[in-house]
Amino acid sequence: MNAICYVLVRPLSKNTYRKINRVLAETLWLELVWIVDWWAGVKIKVFTDNETFNRMGKEHALVVCNHRSDIDWLVGWILAQRSGCLGRALAVTKKSSKFLPVTGWSMWFSEYLFLERNWVKDESTIKSGLQRLKDFPQPFWLLFVEGTRFTETKLKAAQEYAASSELPIPRNVLIPRTKGFVSTVINMRSFVPVIYDMTVAIPKSSPPPTMLRLFKGQPSVSPNHCCWCHVHVHIKCHSMKDLPESDEAIAQWCIDQFVAKDALLDKHIAADTFSHQQEQNIGRPMKSLAVVLSWACILTLGAMKFLHWSNLFSSWKGMALSALGLGIITLCMHILIRSSQSERSTPAKPNDHHHSESSPQTDVEKEK
């Protein structure tokens, strides 16, 4: 459907195409939101002030986030859905993501930015991609996640790099790669008014959420089997106009924010919550459940009519084709799960930080 609209509608009206694609993308993403909200029962707690919470989704925004777990990108989608802009949630992500079955293709049609970790190429990709968003007809979010997923091995490498470069030693985050962030700010500041500084933390009592556990429904309870898994999200709003002008100052601003995130996560580890900030109620809307139930009914009725018409199971050939179809679906899910696993993310290179030639990438393992 996305491809048909891209070929037939976009040449006539880019804005109309974007509005149609927003609905199509949201319908797809809601299925993953349903997995978190209803199947796995993960509870996301948002901590921010009332002013920030009330303006979310009402204006263009750059969302900067640490990359603590395998599903941080999905947490961003859920917050976008609660803010009414799920179909307009874009991201900076690695190039390989667009080859993921179904979701990767949808990401491409939705104008995600795909980077290669080669600054010579990525600089022009960021600039041209962001310039295309200037005339985006409705408020959008651009998710910009910390360069690579957090692991203890990567943390140790980041600490060694920080010590050798006389930078603050990180404890809970990695050192951000700032070249891409600087380019993003420079190219967006004329039409994007705010930056949402998002910090994701997993409480001590909750098992670490992964795509595999989500599909199995395992995160629905903590190890003591008495409460749902929780993900805590702290959000701070910055006005884009308050950021400095020079490249070096913007890069330092980014580093300073991650130093602040580190301290914030220290407090969260001690208190097991973001106790200094007000918790906002984001609820658990029925929309994703309604979409999944609708799809289930449509597909079930369609499959029954098709099987009745084709007598597919009446021959070995038909059963073989059915098995092949199930195998393809299983393979697609396997690819999605593998792509989201932190141990399979690209290792941080020793020199791949704010003075390197590598661009920051968001590992939106969105199987999209």
TrEMBL record:
UniProt entry tagged with the keyword Repeat: no
Any Pfam family the entry gives: Acyltransf_C
EC number: 2.3.1.51
Pathway given in the UniProt record: Phospholipid metabolism; CDP-diacylglycerol biosynthesis; CDP-diacylglycerol from sn-glycerol 3-phosphate: step 2/3; Lipid metabolism
Compositional bias per record (Basic and acidic residues), positions renumbered to this chain: 350-368
Domain (Phospholipid/glycerol acyltransferase): residue spans on this chain: 61-182
Reactions catalysed, as given in the entry: a 1-acyl-sn-glycero-3-phosphate + an acyl-CoA = a 1,2-diacyl-sn-glycero-3-phosphate + CoA
Protein name as catalogued: 1-acylglycerol-3-phosphate O-acyltransferase
Organism lineage: Eukaryota, Viridiplantae, Streptophyta, Embryophyta, Tracheophyta
